[in-house]
Amino acid sequence: MVTDRPRVLSGIQPTSGSFHLGNYLGAVRQWVSLQETHDAFYMVVDLHAITVEQDPATLRENTRVSVAQLLGVGLDPERCTLFIQSHVPEHAQLGWVMNCFTGFGEAARMTQFKDKSGKQGADRTTVGLFTYPILQVADILLYQADQVPVGEDQRQHIELTRDLAERFNSRLGQTFTVPNPYILKETAKIFDLQDPTSKMSKSASTPKGLVNLLDEVKTSTKKIKSAVTDTGTVVSYDEQEKAGVSNLLRIHSAISGRSVPELVEHFEGRMYGALKTELAELYAEWVAPIQQRTRSYLDDPAELDRVLARGAEKARAVAGETLATAYDRIGFLAAKR
Ligand code: TYM
Q1: What does pTM read for this prediction?
Q2: Between the CA of residue 187 and those of 13, 190, 196, 336, what are the distances in Å?
């Protein structure tokens, strides 16, 4: 499909069965709205997932659940191209090329790698984890993406993508679009409900502050009701002094569509408990239909397969063209068919 809409591309890992509220509010929610205005490519990044050890059956299952969830939150295969990264071999192919354009020191400066490898220790850290951001660069450049909707933690990887695109273009001629991050300030970083100074993450030391969309609703509403708040009692927005309350207000605002100042006024004269109770109710109402839709997609594996086959075909058409141009610019002898 030829379109003059700007192009967006993004990806999400299938590493745990359920996405969490940070994934959704930081990135996936924007994917859903951008499919209306942009030529949108979204993928489940299973190649990225194996940078840490995976059980094969679990990976397969989590990949399906991830796709069903993306459909469940509102991606529409008629409006976007939804696919699995490993179904498009050009990712690994351009990934290799980009490895050869990246300085070792440049890759070593990636903070996500430093954090993760620091926690795991060098012996348990794979070379794949080290080159992970470079595969992400290839993911983005293959589609000539103008914008990349992600959370704040991915900003550095988008900067790397811009640097490598510019480097390749200036050495070998204009080949790749230099993309911009698309990060919404209000939801760029959703914090852990128990530790509102750390981002919500599946690798947190305890799952108590992590809200998984597919968990039993009761489990999540309990977590919201026991979120850590701050000293004082007045509901107001202050990221430094009231990190916990401010996080809850941002989540409320994103789900309810009401602005933070409006919410502060709404809770005037009431205490933190009122905010938590209302947010728990709001969340429960919002997530129930998402869970229901996700289940119905999981109950129809043939339809899921059809969506993915069509997505891979559309993705390969674009990725194949970019890879062929890049190979030619590099000086690879064209294979005659
Ligand atoms: P992943 O799978 O860790 O996360 C998916 C998306 O969720 C966002 N996110 C958050 N946003 C706000 N608050 C949080 N607490 C939070 N936690 C996660 C992430 O920023 C991300 O946008 N490397 C990527 C996947 C990837 C990709 C790509 C992204 C692979 N190739 C190409 C864009 C373009 C990752 O591991 O995301």
Answers
A1: 0.96
A2: 19, 6, 14, 49
Structure tokens at 264: 């502060």
pLDDT in tens, 237-286: 999 999 999 999 999 999 999 999 999 999 999 999 999 999 999 999 99
Q: Is the CB of 86 under 6 A from ligand 1?
A: no
Spatial separation of the C-alpha atoms in residues 71 and 76, rounded to whole Å: 6
Evaluate: CB of 70 within 6 angstroms of ligand 1.
no
Residue of 7, 8, 12, 199 to test ligand 1 pocket, by largest number of atoms within 8 Å of CB: 12
Q: What is the pLDDT of residues 187-203, one digit of tens each?
A: 999 999 999 999 999 98
**How many A from CA of 18 to the centre of ligand 1?**
14
pLDDT on residue 2: 57
- Residues with catalytic roles: 116, 199, 202
Q: Which of 79, 67, 17, 25 is nearest to 191 (CA)?
A: 25
Sheet containing strand 7-12, edge to edge, reads 80-84, 39-44, 7-12, 147-149, 180-182
